[in-house]
């Protein structure tokens, strides 16, 4: 464990986790997230150099503009479907794009409670279709995301697999949030151990996201989706986070459909620790692994399912 992680654990437990317990509404949470992201970026506005190019009706930021039909990562930011933006995840995006060696696109999908489920999923589908309309082959795209964004990436994959549509080259999910029924044992087993997420807020969060919708809908809980013909997937999660079992059960679900899955459970780390590449060596190591996976997938010969129905 690095000394940086030891310091961050103290800060998250003493300040950030209690703050998350107290936040009155999603708008307060968004302001806090933006402030935390500014600190995480060490006060530098990483997104000023990003390219602003929408995908149809969905706003999006890019680490750089890809060449015509070029390979890229379609990355969905985390934030529990109620906070976060391409700007908050700029440091992570830069690091992952550099490690993967390809441009990265961050859609600015709509957030609950203003835009409840299925708004985020619909925007993810629109972003994917926007990339195809720009001439990017599905087999030259890797889906990725952290937390809720990891859930969105896997939900989009589930839709593509279920409809026998062209699949991406692969998927990377950091601490994915994939089960809004909260049926994983780690929700309770790790309640006291999780460095960041307060389990007491989960019911409120679910109500804001779903607003009466079915928590087993695979568009919001891809743990219940089907994945025939899924491409290789890399999942990373922390041993002590409450969403650990979302990661492990998602891996088993994918393997049940014959997918090649690498599910790495790291140590006593914060949920989605990859968010802190400017501070944590552990974040940089995890992103380096993910970047290598992405580069390998984009260099692999395309499969028939990458291009269309088989």
Distance between the termini: 46 Å
- Assembly category: single chain
Structural class comes to alpha/beta
Helix content: 25-40%
Q: Characterize the biggest β-sheet.
A: 8 strands, mixed
What is the CATH topology assignment? Rossmann fold
Indicate the mean pLDDT.
Answer: 93
> How are helices and strands ordered from N to C?
HHEEEHEHEHEHHEHEH
Q: What is the C-alpha radius of gyration, as a whole number of Å?
A: 18 Å
Estimate the global geometry from the Cα principal axes: globular
Number of domains: 1
Structural write-up:
The protein has 310 residues and is an alpha/beta fold. The protein has a single domain, classed as Rossmann fold. Helix content is 39%, strand content 12%. It has nine helices and eight strands. The chain has an eight-stranded mixed sheet, sandwiched between helices. Helix 3 crosses helix 9 and helix 4 crosses helix 5. The protein is globular. The model has no long low-confidence stretch (mean pLDDT 93).
Brief description of this entry?
The protein has helices at 3-22, 26-40, 90-100, 119-133, 148-162, 186-189, 202-210, 244-256, 281-299; strands spanning 51-52, 60-62, 72-76, 104-107, 141-146, 170-174, 233-238, 261-266. An eight-stranded mixed β-sheet has the order 1-2-4-3-5-6-7-8, with helices on both faces.
Features:
310 residues; alpha/beta; Rossmann fold; eight-stranded mixed beta sheet; 8 strands
